[in-house]
Each structure stands twice: as structure tokens, then as C-alpha cells.
């Protein structure tokens, strides 16, 4: 039995595509099957759990090693008189800040404690955006609210920790769509039993992060790499939340990732459907 999320076509998105035809434009929706949610209620094998931990650890180390290496090389930056000039000190300080920001991001996205031992059940959108900006923004990449998003005027709006983790993972994946830099913007809303988010990666050379999207759909981490493991992890979070992931791209210009998560009674109805 195939227990991975499947790719389906959303009729509304298809109409939207027809209205805005673009050569090479691609569009689709990935929706978690009940079979995957059922599988997640079964404890993973020791080998699967160990491999996932290894892959996530490798990804974290890969993303941190550059900044930590520079910050740790203070002695190599000293001149013959054992002094460090201001430019070198600024480089060390910036590297230390970048490493600390990424550690905070990874701790929230992959760590245990925020919702596992009662520390916190939710976080504000403002805190979430601050985490993303600190870890992902650079001179080539901006992280911001979408123009006109209501969350801009209500950043204190809270978001449950599981949904917040999934959102951070998708923002991390979105940065892979911008090899030359650009802007990752986010829009969120909550209505009629759904939490909805749109993440847009816009910039020159934008393209679908296909390997991570493929990893989102697999039911095993056997063939994953440290680069694609975030997509797999996002897929597991999506299954637990009964979420739907959609994507659309205009090659060379932008990639849109859409998320729909049932909340309250809507999610409970989904659980009852899975258990039936």
C-alpha cells in the first residue's frame, strides 16, 4: 500500500492557471492521504528513527559550519602584534550572530520542548517571522509579509506550535527556489475551519525546489539526503495535521507554495474519517 502523500489537481487552481497562461507554468496540490496518517500512529522502526536523526543532524551541521568556523577562527585573524582589526571583529560578530539565529530557528523547527513538555502551546506570527528573518535573511534574500496581508497589522496573532513548525520548514524550502536571491513573502489567514498560508519566493531564476517537494511525498527516508530531509519532515508534519500542500511556479520569476490546515471541528472530523 502506498502511504505517501499524493499529487492531485485543484480545480480552482486549474481555472486560475487558464486565466493566467504562462509557458512552462506548473501547478498542483499535494494532499495527505488518510493511509499516511494511519501509518504515523505506528512507531517508526529504530533504523528509520536513527536515520532521520542523522539526516537532520547533518543538515543542521551543514548550515552552521560556515558561521561557526569563522567565529572560531579568531586567533587566525590576529596580526603580528596579536591584534584584530575592526573589520575582522565585525566579521566574527556577524558570524556568531548568524550561527545563533540559525540555532534558534532549528531548535524551534526540529527541536523538542515547545509543545512536547508544556513549555508553550502557541507562538505569535511576529515571533515566527523574526525567527525566519534572523536565520534566513541576508544581503541577497529578504523575508517579509505579503503586501496587504492582514497579519501585518496583527502580528501578535497566535499560531499553534505544530503549524508554526510546518510554516518554518516551508519557508526554509522556499529559499531553495531562489539560487540568485530575492524575496520570500508570507500571507496567512484563518477562516471557515481552515488555517491558510501562502509562501511566495520571487526573484531572478526562481524555480521549483523539486527534490524537496518530491521528498515531501515519500513514505520512507531511505533515499533522502541532508538537503531533502526538510521536505520529508514537512510531509510528516503535514500528515499529522491533515494538511494540504499546493504549489505553482512561473519559471524564472516566482514559486508559490500554499498550505491549508484544518483546525477545530474541521480537524476532528478528519480524524473521525481516518478512524472510520
Sum up the structure in keywords.
276 residues, alpha+beta, seven-stranded mixed beta sheet, two-stranded antiparallel sheet, disordered N terminus
How would you sum up the global shape?
globular
Strand content: 15-25%
Alpha-beta classification: alpha+beta
- What series of H and E elements makes up the topology? EHEHHHEHEEHEEHHEEH
Number of helices: 9
Folded structure, characterized:
It is a single chain. This protein is α+β, with helices and mostly antiparallel strands and 276 residues long. It has nine helices and nine strands. The chain has helices at residues 11-19, 34-40, 46-72, 86-110, 125-136, 161-175, 210-217, 229-241, 265-275; strands at residues 6-8, 26-31, 122-124, 141-145, 158-160, 182-191, 194-202, 244-250, 254-262. The strands form two sheets. The chain has a seven-stranded mixed sheet with strand order 1-2-8-9-7-6-4, with helices on both faces. A hairpin with a 3-residue loop joins strand 8 (244-250) and strand 9. Helix 3 packs antiparallel against helix 4 (86-110) and helix 4 packs across helix 5. It is globular, with a radius of gyration of 20 Å. Mean pLDDT is 78; it is low at 1-26 and 29-41.
Record the SSE blueprint.
Layout: E1 6-8, H1 11-19, E2 26-31, H2 34-40, H3 46-72, H4 86-110, E3 122-124, H5 125-136, E4 141-145, E5 158-160, H6 161-175, E6 182-191, E7 194-202, H7 210-217, H8 229-241, E8 244-250, E9 254-262, H9 265-275
Parallel strand pairs: 4-6
Antiparallel strand pairs: 1-2, 2-8, 3-5, 6-7, 7-9, 8-9
Helix pairs in contact: 3-4, 4-5, 4-6, 5-6, 6-8, 7-8
